[in-house]
Design goal:
- The chain has about 70 residues and is an alpha+beta fold.
- The chain has a domain at about 1-40: YefM-like fold, CATH 3.40.1620.
- It is built from 2 helices and 3 strands.
- The protein has helices spanning about 5-10, 15-20, and strands at about 1-5, 25-30, 35-40.
- Strands 1-2-3 form a 3-stranded mixed sheet.
- The longest helix is centred in the N-terminal third of the chain and has 9 residues, at about 15-20.
- The protein is elongated.
- About 0% of the residues are buried.
Length: about 70
């Protein structure tokens, strides 16, 4: 993971955001210390599983909660 300073990010924010959008991650440094991580959001377009996807594939016994 590449390290960049706060000043570098401020000078060209869109350059770094475009790289993040392409999948790259950065550690943001200030005064020689890591203060944040800039990385892509995972599972941005992940769809929820449809309700009843496994209907009929198994059954719950009547004494399940006893």
């Amino acid at each position: 993971m590449q390290k960049v300073t706060v000043d570098e990010i401020q000078q060209d924010l869109f350059k770094y955001l475009n790289q993040v959008e392409a999948g790259k991650s950065f550690i943001i440094m200030q005064e020689g210390k890591a203060i944040a991580e800039l990385k892509p959001i995972q599972n941005r377009n992940k769809q929820q599983r449809p309700f009843g996807l496994c209907a009929g594939e198994f059954s719950v016994p009547d004494d399940f909660d006893i």
